[in-house]
Amino acid sequence: MISAVILGAGNVATHLYKAFEITDKVSVVQWYNRELSKVINFKNDVDVTDDVSKLKPADIYIISVTDDAIANLSRQLPFKNRLVVHTSGTVNIHDLDKKNRRGVFYPLQTLSKSVLIDFKTVPVCLETLEKEDYKLLKKIGNAISNHVKKVNSDQRAALHLGAVFVNNFTNQLYRLAHEITESTGAEFDMLKPLILETAHKVQEHSPFRSQTGPALRGDTSTIKAHLKLLQNQRHKAIYEMLTQSIINTHGS
Amino acid sequence: MISAVILGAGNVATHLYKAFEITDKVSVVQWYNRELSKVINFKNDVDVTDDVSKLKPADIYIISVTDDAIANLSRQLPFKNRLVVHTSGTVNIHDLDKKNRRGVFYPLQTLSKSVLIDFKTVPVCLETLEKEDYKLLKKIGNAISNHVKKVNSDQRAALHLGAVFVNNFTNQLYRLAHEITESTGAEFDMLKPLILETAHKVQEHSPFRSQTGPALRGDTSTIKAHLKLLQNQRHKAIYEMLTQSIINTHGS
Question: Looking at the 3D structure of chain A, how many domains does it have?
Answer without folding.
Answer: 2
